[in-house]
Amino acid sequence: MTDPILTVRDVQVTFDLGSVFRPSEILGVAGVSLEVRPGETFALVGESGSGKTTLARAINGLQAISEGEIAFEGRRIDTLSRKEMQPIRQRMSMMFQDPVGSLSPRMTVGDLVTEPFAIHGQQIDRRAEVERLLSLVGLPADFATRFPHQLSGGQARRVGVARAIALDPALVIADEPTAGLDVSVQGEVLNLLNDLRERLGLAMVIITHNLHVVHHVADRMAVMYLGRFVETGPTEAVFRAPIHPYTKALISANPEPDPDRAHDRISLPAEVPSLLARPSGCEFHTRCPWARDVCATTLPPRVTIDGQTATCHFPLRQETAA
Amino acid sequence: MTVLSISNLNVVFSTEDGPLHALKDVSFDVPANRIVGIVGESGCGKSTLINAILGLLADNGHIDGGAIRFEGDTDLTTLGPDAMRDLRGPRIATVFQDPMGALNPVLSVGAQMVNIQYRSGRSKAEKRARAVEMLEQVRIPDAAAAIKRYPHEFSGGMKQRIAIAMALMMEPALLIADEPTTALDATLEVATIEMLKDLQQKIGCSILFISHHLGVIAELCDDVVVMYAGEVVERGTTRAIFNDPRHPYTARLLECDPARQTERTRNLPTIPGEIPDLRARPPGCIFANRCHRREDVCARPPPDIQIGGGHAARCHLADMPEMEVAP
Questions:
Q1: Across chain B, which distance is largest between two alpha carbons, in Å?
Q2: Contact A253 B186 (CB under 8 A)
């Protein structure tokens, strides 16, 4: 097995709230660990506010961490200064959520896709590079003179992908790559990401709350709840037989495009606890349909079955799924 | 009884490059007590349609023929701004995608819910009681205390439920919901849909529900209208549309949904090509340039072919079942 390209160990991110006189803080990311290997796609899934984007920003050095370690290509990066971090970002790029909003409205597509070279002071043949990048993401070369407002959501997303892969990175972090796109365009973007990953040997971290996206692109996944991983494992195994009740509820909550389908849905109380008042014991017990007394008082143990790990007192299965 | 009946509606925007036909011959009905879903991709005219119904088209847009009949004979296209303003709110309510945009951040939720009852003729205490009652209906815990709080103190899902409570407070005949669950996560999305369904039954209103999430449409709606490039290409009951799509666009759109691919795949289906320029609509079928079933006849304008049971498709080939294409 090759060495991981990205290692995250027990990372915590705290946010200060309150004032000088009444200081308080919340844990946005409460101790997570993960590894991503070259060529692998890792998905982070969870509700808004579960800490997915904060974790991604921490990996990219855009958010300071308070505990833990992040290593990239064998080198610890969480302790680096802003300036020292700059060259690392050539190897690790980020795609931000809003496809159109993440592009400067005053720059042409050609300027946008070559901006990474300018930022990192690389001399390039601009025309050749624009052509190469646009063709990699499947846009016609004459798009180089267009402005973001002249692009559709899917085209703007392709420009975002071109920017992310411009410097030939080893890892791309994609925050909600398909959010806000039409279903027919979602497929195009996912195909593009899959294709680039194979051709360029990229590792990817994909953040999404769309489980169908995860199912089709990710090798491994982690389900986040209140800043912690409640379950991690190979995507197919997690979908086939989740261990943690929250994972099961998420998978069953997905509305299916079939009016005749009978839903054996697990409905959860809609109230997500506040990070200011984390529940005691298992933090999911306030919404868990299977919760018993012990869940409210004692921290749940970590259970590992066939490479799938979850933190739960009453895992939904004990041994290998048939 | 039909709450909203749209017939042959055309909307044209004047642009620098000439007139743009944003809606072309749009016809469909919203019957009483039904939830009608509108599906279509960005730029298909969903928002233009809502704005036309509400009388809120942009200054460069105008209705170029057709009628929007509401609760019987009133044609909304002929009403003046004052008459339209009287309808919006009490009779036609709306919920939008972003709940924060719908709530005033500097007023408490209760103050806003009391304010919007200004035409109800109720006393202040009655208005307050009504506000608490509506919050309870949308399952906001501890509603009596919640009305004193400000919008930022609620989560995204709760804010959207408050927006729905406000929209339904005056018991409108029609609720227009424009992608109300798009910003929510799967578990909250489902909770919101179920709540909307309950309230619709309780109040007895109709809902026009706009979404590009096919799963939500399948779950919530009784009837579905499929729009493409400003035209209604197919309409019918939810079952008819999902189980027996007759327009090639509907069929492709359903296939594209990643949710339909139960087997994990590296290569998801897509619809190649782009929507034609609406300033220069092709004379024939609007979908012909992307259609895999295109024939010579498609260069002529397609009729609305009735398949039965209110199911209709604007396609020359609608009454010929689609052959399975050999792989």
A1: 69
A2: yes
Q: What are phi and psi of A239, to 5 degrees?
A: -70, -40
What is the DSSP-derived secondary structure letter of residue A278? P
Do B257 and A153 make contact, defined as CB atoms within 8 angstroms?
Answer: no
Candidate from B139, B219, B257 with C-beta closest to A183: B257
CA distance A123 to chain B (A): 36
* Contact yes or no for A227/A27 (Cβ under 8 A): yes
Average confidence (pLDDT) over B142-164: 89
* Residues of A in Cβ contact (< 8 Å) with B218: 255-259, 261
The type of residue at B189 is E
Q: Domain segments of chain A: what residues?
A: 6-240
pLDDT grade for A112, boundaries at 50, 70 and 90: very high
B263 touches chain A (CB under 8 A): no
* First-to-final CA distance of chain B: 47
**What pLDDT score does B3 carry?**
95
Average confidence score pLDDT of chain B = 89
Contact B158/B84 with Cβ under 8 angstroms? Answer: no
A10 has pLDDT over 60: yes
State phi, psi for A247 to the nearest 5 degrees. Answer: -60, -45
Tokens encoding B62: 């105008």
- All CATH 3.40.50.300 domain ranges of chain B, comma separated, are 2-91+173-313
What is chain A's alpha carbon radius of gyration, rounded to the nearest angstrom? 21
What is the mean pLDDT of the segment spanning A238-246?
A: 92
User: Using CB atoms and an 8 Å cut-off, which of residues 191-220 of chain B contact chain A?
Assistant: 191, 193-194, 212-219
Q: Does domain A6-240 have CATH number 3.40.50.300?
A: yes
Nearest chain A Cα distance for residue B74, angstroms: 34
C-alpha angle with apex A39: A34 to A45, nearest 5 degrees? 45
Whether chain A has a CB inside 8 Å of the CB on B272: the answer is no
The 3-state DSSP composition of chain B as helix, strand, coil percent (nearest 5) reads 35, 25, 40
DSSP A142: G
pLDDT at A210: 80
How far is residue B236 from each of residues A201, B7, B226, B247, B311, measured CA to CA in Å? 46, 16, 9, 11, 4
ipTM above 0.90, yes or no: no
According to DSSP, residue B76 is labeled: G
pTM, to two decimals: 0.83
Q: Is the pLDDT confidence value at B219 over 80?
A: yes
Q: State yes or no: pLDDT of B28 exceeds 80.
A: yes
> Residues of chain B with pLDDT > 90: what percent?
61
pLDDT band at B327 (very low <50, low <70, confident <90, very high): very low
Distances (CA, A) of B300 to A120, A128, B285: 55, 44, 7
* Structure confidence by residue, pLDDT tens digits, A85-102: 989 999 999 998 888 888
**CATH superfamily of the B2-91+173-313 domain:** P-loop containing nucleotide triphosphate hydrolases (3.40.50.300)
By three-state DSSP, how is residue B270 classified? coil
Q: Give the residue from chain B lying closest to A275, CA to CA.
A: B155
Pull the structure tokens for residue B225.
């209208």
- Cα atoms in the Cβ-side hemisphere of radius 13 Å centred on A304: 1
Q: Are B186 and A50 in contact (CB under 8 A)?
A: no
User: Which three-class secondary structure state does DSSP give residue A239?
Assistant: helix
